[in-house]
Specification:
The protein is mainly α. The protein has one domain. Helix content is about 65%, strand content about 0%. The protein contains 7 helices and no strands. The chain is globular, with a radius of gyration of 16 Å.
Length: about 140
């Protein structure tokens, strides 16, 4: 199983949106690129250059919250990896001492579950016959 690119893009957008909400920025950058501290998370830099689609981010928020009911560990993985910007090794430690490879497998599993959620919520009757991993395209 591999990451699904369109799900990855949605999660990156959602992470920027979440960071902006936490900052109280209301969708606008709080600092310019040259005033930000070195070593700031990747989302801090991209917030100033890529506009965030709030509607898509809010929908992704609902999908991420729904992971709690599918498999709580997938919800935790998404939060840790995208919101807290953890790499595989640190993510694995936070997830109970699993290895980095298993941590990234959980991220990929979360991608697949989120793709299914988006498909169901878009009313795709044929979702069971489509292989989201193979197509890599949004439903």
């Amino acid at each position: 199983m591999a990451k699904i690119e369109w799900v990855e893009q949605r999660l990156e957008n959602w992470a920027r949106w979440s960071a902006e909400r936490a900052d109280g920025a209301l969708g606008f950058p709080r600092a310019s690129a040259f005033t930000r501290a070195p070593g700031a998370p990747r989302h801090a830099e991209s917030r100033n250059s890529i506009p965030v689609n709030g509607l898509d981010a809010a929908t992704t928020e609902r999908a991420v919250q729904a992971l709690r009911f599918v498999k709580g560990s997938l919800h935790a993985v998404v939060i840790q990896h995208y919101i807290h910007d953890l790499d595989g090794a640190t993510l694995g430690q936070r997830m109970g001492g699993i290895g980095p490879r298993r941590a990234y497998q959980l991220v990929e599993e979360a991608h697949f579950e989120l793709a299914k959620w988006f498909a169901v919520h878009r009313g795709l009757a044929q979702m069971g016959t489509m292989d989201w991993r193979a197509t890599g395209t949004a439903p």
